[in-house]
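Morning!

This is the sequence you dropped in the shared folder:
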Amino acid sequence: MGLIAPLAALFGLELESVAARARAAAVLYGLMALFLLAAAIFLTIAGYLALADLFSPIIAALILGGVFLLVALALYLGTLLGKGHKRRDLAERRKSSESAAFLTTAALTALPVFLKSPLIVKLGLPAAAITAIALIRENRGDD
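The structure's back. Tokens below.
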């Protein structure tokens, strides 16, 4: 509550009304979750009874157990794929950041040597500016 009060005051909201709405939403979502759980249980029981009517009760239980096992396995594999994708993105971002830092350091280190030559000052600085603008435009196109 220590963080909510200043934020609520900043936006001109009364803390009591914000807390009341949050409490009402929590109760509502809790009831929705309870009824969804009850619906899932009854649908599972109905599916078992339908399968038990077609097959034996043991076969029906094995079929439902296998289906639930496959669903859990699919969710687990989806989670692994998502983690791998995030890990690759993080490594790519880190590599890009490191190479940009290396290039910046190298350019800043070599700059005094290049600025001693008058030809580089006349031709190199405009070429570097054009290259920088082109790189900035290219990076904006990726977003």
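Headline: The chain has a mean pLDDT of 83.

More detail when I'm at my desk.
O.
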